[in-house]
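Student: Send me a single protein entry containing the residue sequence and its fold in token form, directly below this note:

Tutor:
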Amino acid sequence: MASGLAVTSLFALMYAVVFVIGVWFLPSSIWGLIIMIAITVGMVLLQYGISPLIVGWLYKIDWIPYEEFAAQFPHLAESLDKVVSFRSIKMPRLGIIHDLNPNAFTFGWTKNSARVVLTDGILKYLNKKEQNAVFSHELGHVVHSDFILMTVVFAIPLLLLTVARWAYYASYFSRRGDSDEASYLRLALIAIAVLSFVSYYLSYLISLIVSRIREYYADEHSAEVLEDPNPLATGLVKIAYGLLVDGHIEERKKSRVRALRGLGIFDPSAAKGLGIISVGTTQTLSMEAIQKAAAWDLYNPWAKYYQAFSTHPLPAKRIMRLNMLCDIYGVQPEIDFSDAKRLKEEQAGKSMWDEFLADIFMKTLPTLVFIALLGITIVWIFDLAGFYNIAFLAPVYGNMWFIWAIGFYIIGFMSIIKTRYMYKGGYEDKKVLDLVTNVKVSPIRCIPAYIEGKIVGKGIPGYYFSEDMYFQDDTGLMYVDYRFGIGIVDLIFSLRSVNRLIGQRVRIKGWYRRGPSPYIQVDTIWSESGKRHRNYSKAFRYVWAVLAFILGIVCIYFYFQG
């Protein structure tokens, strides 16, 4: 849910600080473990208790009394009344965020103390049925008590991580003894640490699966309230790829292309943004464009990677599930992805695994070299390969400073190659529609582009400290990633510049990526006020190469000193 990102980060920092203090003062006793588990449970309960208050402080939400809400949005109030009456819950608190980034979220303690929030983007870009469907999805989270359930589900991995860390540090502090009993204790603690960490990782993946299942249940609730899954499907696809104006589906295409897909009510910690495809001047829904945009989720291997680590299902999965519900309500799915595979193959061929593996290789290239250096060092320490006995290798192999010097120089050059691969030149003017329909793009493989349009909102709507933005041109909307990567720099930009840029026409130079949703990473923004905003994230990446070269020089120095 959109409101959770900042709160989760805050409590993760608090947990880290508390754990370090606990490890320092309670290193190895069983009481130390009990106390650390108690502290972890206390942190979870504290987060559950004050998170709704923190969201209210960090997000600029215009709370609306029910009577005023019902007068402004009678179609939403009708569904709200239906759910409140049938489910016997208290009336949620209702809010609007005045931001054109189309989003919605809910938060609270229980289903009887819920807050449901919509943005102006939902009200502008979606028709009334679609607004109702998204609103009913959020009410589904309320009636299913997802606040409590997901708090418990995500607490389990945290408890296992606490046990793993305690066992590891306890084994470290118990190394003082040399008896057989102490040795067995250390081995047992290490085994507990490994087992607990593996369990933590698996339970974390399971908790994400549970989160995705809850999204499906909320989708089903929306279909149940409206007695039709299609409005949520069309609403989702408008948020994810969508339409800037309402149009009709061409009848000649309707028989072979009938579904939509989208990332609605989305999770900004897992998805970098959205693309909304325009119907253009013909007022006709471009099914081919939607299917090209959907093909990334359906066939790009990166989509499978992101699905595994996301709290929300991929948009195509949600739309397909909604289509399966259509028979229950006696309606036909409006669009499907029957032509998406052909369109993908025309653009990217039958398989994209070769490009995926190339991306992974480039992404991990400097790290792979560093791991190889560590391996060589281990071999050297124990002389596992007998290199000392090889005459022409012995002089070099006998001094690891020389090997590490060469290694750092290789790491530096690999870092430069990686940066040039990820930040290509050759910028061309593009539209959102041109970018969103590209299947081959990835978080590593970019399209350098200029785009022109208007900043219409924040990347996280209503969040005071959002450094990212939302962009619109005459073909659609897209997330603008300004993140520099250094917290204080991002904070300064969010406070000084974002609000001033909203509403201005801009020209953006950057790199279009997808991971899993479309976004453009900023190099430069020129605004109509005449100001230029640079982002030096690309240049900052070269710092790692320079650092590697400096470490190489240091190693050469010690080599000659030896």
About this structure: Residues 429 and 450 are 5 Å apart (CA to CA).
